[in-house]
Each structure stands twice: as C-alpha cells, then as structure tokens.
C-alpha cells in the first residue's frame, strides 16, 4: 500500500478562489476585509510564516496590515500596538505571531486582542464560545489549524463522522482546541487526546482511524505503530541537524508511514497551507458578519 496524499496546497488554492469571489462581493458594498499581523523579533520561521499570510491576502484581495516590532519591544509598547489595531476600522482581524520573547507575558498579550478581531480563534472568549456550542452556526472564528485539518479531509471526500481520531499534542494552537472542533455535530468524530503523560501511545495509535500528530517531536509516529489504512496528518514541526551540520525541519511522522496508511498529509505542503487559508477565511467571515449587520441607507430613511 502507498498512501494517497492530502494535498494542502491544492486544497488551499481551491479555497482561495472561493474567498476571492466573496471578497469581491464585499467590495461591491464598500467593505474590504483587512488582516493584521504583529511580529516581534527576527525569527526566520516566524518571518517566513507571516510573509506567507500576506501573500495569501494579496491573492484573494484582502488588505494587509503589518506591524513588525524589534525583539527589544516592551510589553507595554506591544500592548499599545494591539490597542491601535483593536480600534482600527480597516483591520477586520489580526494575529500576534508566536512565540514571543521571554520577557513578554504571552497570555496577557493574547487576551488583549479584541475577541471580534481574533483571527486565530484562540482568544479565551472565542474558545469559550466553542466549548458552549456543539452544533449550529458559530458567530466567532474557529481555531485555524484544527479547522484546516477538517477542511483538508472534507476536500478529499473523507467523512470523520464516527471515526476514532487520535490527537497527539496538547498545545493551545492545535491539540487542546482540536477536540472541540472535531466533536461538533457537523464533524462528529470520537477524539482521544494523547500527550507526554499518555502511558500507552503505541496502543492508542494502533486503535486510531485518524491520527493528527502535533507534538513537535521529530518522526515520533512510526510505521509499525500505525494501523493499516489509517489516515495520518503530520502537523508538528521540529528543527533537526544532519550529520553534516545542516539544519532542516521535519514533521512528527516518519516517511515510512506512507507504506501502511491510506492517506498522509505531507509536511510541508499539507496542513500548513490550510492553517494560513483558514486564517484568511476567518477574516472574510468576520467581514461578512459586519456586512450583514449594516442597515442599508435607503431602509434607514423614514
């Protein structure tokens, strides 16, 4: 068996076409969505990721608002930038790129984002709304990476209803919110969350229909651990050093897993592009909610 590829780049490209059409309709009514990014420092990975987000914006017609700050920025200076974006009418939503320098309280910064401008869907208010909502239409953004995993599978005709999904990793961006997204009634999966305290990870892997590996541990998911025919999404990223001293990034899933799985998402090129496009989708949906609340001038006149 050779696993089929869950192509995140192709799926994201298809979604961008739809988003571009929706942005064009908003523009007809005088509303242009704007995505803001706040980047602190010069981390190459973070800079590359932010640049990719702005390229996505350009492709679909979303305005870009970029705030790049030095590593030495104080917490109060950073919070002042967030306050500015919270009150900027041209900014529909924005994100603070993580990680932040150690002298800054990350939780305090994330909580300063106005919930209705939380493009990542990770503000405590929006996560609370997700906890409280099992079905129906949400009026708040979904966390980008878990939502991207679901859309990637849907695009390839894979229904998660009733499937046993193992999520490895309990980080706030993927692992912890993944179960909230996957157990909503429109997805209807049965979810197990594994982490460093899980005693029998190999047993959990052998029972899973779907594996979402998001621990950031290089090649921790091995061929012999995965059930034949399982669907495996490689989300985690680790920096490794080759024998010749060169650095490279690798995923959580060893390449040999493709010999037993039915579907595998590549890393890079799988969930990463989906995370970025879901960020843009969250901003477009926020703009659509704004448009829906506007009262047409003609209707407002007596």
Salient structural properties:
302 residues, Rossmann fold, 6-stranded parallel beta sheet, 10 helices, 40% helix
Structure at a glance:
By secondary structure, the protein is an alpha/beta fold.
Question: What does this entry look like structurally?
Answer:
The protein is α/β, with parallel strands linked by helices and 302 residues long. It folds into two domains: 28-115, Rossmann fold; 141-272, Rossmann fold. Helix content is 40%, strand content 17%. Strands 1-11-8-7-5-6 form a six-stranded parallel sheet, with helices on both faces. A three-stranded parallel sheet has the order 3-2-4, sandwiched between helices. Strand 5, helix 7 (175-182) and strand 6 form a beta-alpha-beta unit. Helix 2 (44-60) packs across helix 9 (271-293), helix 6 (144-155) packs across helix 7 and helix 6 crosses helix 9 (271-293). The longest helix is centred in the C-terminal third of the chain and has 23 residues, at 271-293. The N and C termini lie far apart (69 Å). The model is unreliable at 297-302 (pLDDT under 50).
Profile the largest sheet.
6 strands, parallel
Give the termini distance in whole angstroms. 69 Å
Total E-strand runs: 11
Rg calculated over all Cα atoms: 20 Å
Shape, per Cα inertia axes: globular
**For the record, what CATH class of the largest domain applies?**
Alpha Beta
User: Considering the protein shown, what is the CATH homologous superfamily of the largest domain?
Assistant: NAD(P)-binding Rossmann-like Domain
- The portion of residues assigned to helices is 25-40%
Number of domains: 2
How many helical elements? 10
Regions with pLDDT < 50 over 5+ consecutive residues?
Answer: 297-302
Coarse structural class: alpha/beta
CATH topology term of the largest domain: Rossmann fold
Q: What is the average of the pLDDT values?
A: 93
In the sheet with the most strands, the strands line up as 1-11-8-7-5-6
Multimeric state: single chain
β-sheet strand percentage: 15-25%
CATH architecture of the largest domain: 3-Layer(aba) Sandwich
What is the H/E string? EHEHEHEHHHEHEHEEEEEHH
């Amino acid at each position: 068996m050779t696993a089929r590829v869950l192509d995140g780049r192709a799926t994201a490209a298809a979604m961008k076409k739809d988003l571009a059409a929706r942005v064009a309709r908003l523009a007809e009514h005088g509303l242009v969505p704007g995505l803001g990014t706040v980047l602190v420092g010069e981390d190459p990975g973070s800079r590359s990721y932010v640049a990719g987000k702005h390229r996505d914006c350009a492709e679909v017609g979303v305005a870009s608002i970029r705030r790049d700050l030095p590593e030495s920025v104080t917490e109060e200076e950073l919070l002042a930038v967030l306050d500015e974006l919270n009150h900027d009418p041209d900014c529909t939503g924005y994100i603070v790129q993580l990680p932040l320098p150690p002298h800054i309280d990350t939780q305090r910064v994330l909580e300063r984002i106005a919930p209705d401008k939380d493009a990542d869907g990770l503000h405590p208010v929006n996560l609370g709304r997700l906890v409280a909502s099992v079905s129906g239409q949400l009026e708040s953004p979904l966390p980008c990476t878990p939502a991207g995993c679901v859309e990637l599978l849907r695009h390839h005709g894979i229904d998660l209803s009733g499937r046993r999904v193992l999520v490895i990793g309990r980080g706030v961006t993927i692992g912890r919110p993944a179960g909230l997204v996957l157990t909503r009634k429109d997805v209807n999966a049965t979810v197990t969350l594994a982490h460093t305290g899980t005693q029998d990870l190999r047993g959990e892997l052998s029972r899973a229909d779907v594996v979402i590996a998001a621990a950031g541990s290089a090649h921790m998911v091995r061929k012999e651990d995965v059930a034949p025919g399982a669907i495996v999404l490689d989300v985690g990223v680790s920096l490794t050093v080759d024998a010749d001293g060169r650095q490279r990034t690798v995923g959580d899933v060893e390449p040999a897993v493709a010999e037993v799985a039915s579907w595998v998402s590549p890393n890079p090129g799988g969930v990463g592009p989906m995370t970025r496009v879901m960020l843009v989708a969250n901003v477009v949906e926020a703009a659509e909610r704004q448009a829906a609340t506007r009262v047409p001038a003609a209707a407002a006149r007596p």
